[in-house]
Amino acid sequence: MRIGDLAHETGVSRRLLRYYEEQGLLRPVRLPNGYREYHQSDVATVRHIRDLLAAGLPTAVIARLLDCVHDDEGGRMVPVACPGMITHLRRERQRITETIERLQTSQRHLDTMLAAVRNPTQPPARTTAERRRRAPIVGQNRAL
Amino acid sequence: MRIGDLAHETGVSRRLLRYYEEQGLLRPVRLPNGYREYHQSDVATVRHIRDLLAAGLPTAVIARLLDCVHDDEGGRMVPVACPGMITHLRRERQRITETIERLQTSQRHLDTMLAAVRNPTQPPARTTAERRRRAPIVGQNRAL
DNA sequence: CTAAAGCGTCACATCCATGTGAGGGTCAAG
DNA sequence: CTTGACCCTCACATGGATGTGACGCTTTAG
């Protein structure tokens, strides 16, 4: 498949697909006319890339991951030459775990907010000073 | 507390604290000499902001969230004037949920990789074409 | 054959969270 | 009074993921 097809199937712009290649995340074969020819499995790879990007991993890291292990057609993973990779993989996994935890913390925050909005608890006895501290600032009116 | 203290207590640079204010995420009081005076609870707020940023929410969205509900000293949430906010909160919560799911997908990917690296499975009968498709590309040697 | 659709490269633009530094006040300690 | 530690504003820089557009070649449909 060519870049347009892949873009269509993944919802990722051609520009980005070229960018990913530049970053070493994709290695499409080149047809004699210079066109990029993608393999069917690249659809999965791109989705994978997007997941990892959404995970906050920079392309450089993703490149290293994909470089050592690539998607097979059956969604299987095939290990390639990758010394010290296990350590690396584990480290990244840990990073993601931490990110997930931060997100869950945020969700708890949001839930607390939702609960508060739903049944407003009159907070007991705050001082006037406290009440004033979020007062509007003069000269600040940013467009939303 | 002043900006230096807050920076120290949160590990966030002064620059960023000013930036957050500019984005409407913090509203420190101004002392007569122009210095920003932060409330103790801003420490928690900043942590909260960082979590949400790490969650991938842009400052504009975070501003709207904080704008309608702010941290009390006891970690409680106090709802302020916020029409249609519940919907908004829910939408963001949903977004975060999706992000978490993508991260978990990525983790499964990593786990699969780890398993593969650990006990390499000889993938059965791939065609030569398939095997060739990740062959090195001429003219590509990017510095890592 | 011709036009449209796709592709390629190059390069500049944008957004957002951050960094960095210049130039200049404020304030407390010596 | 002076020095050093903070603070302020302004403004330009950067890095990473993306967008956009120019210009030209290739392939495909009519």
UniProtKB/TrEMBL annotation, chains A, B:
Cross-referenced InterPro entries:
DNA-bd_dom_put_sf, MerR-type_HTH_dom, MerR_fam
- PROSITE patterns (UniProt xref): HTH_MERR_1, HTH_MERR_2
Keyword terms, alphabetized: DNA-binding
Pfam families recorded for this chain? MerR_1
Q: Which SMART domains match?
A: HTH_MERR
Location of region: Disordered: 119-144
Domain HTH merR-type: start-end pairs: 1-68
Molecular functions per Gene Ontology: DNA binding; DNA-binding transcription factor activity
Keyword DNA-binding in annotation: yes
- Protein name listed in UniProt: MerR family transcriptional regulator
Q: Native species of this protein?
A: Nonomuraea turkmeniaca
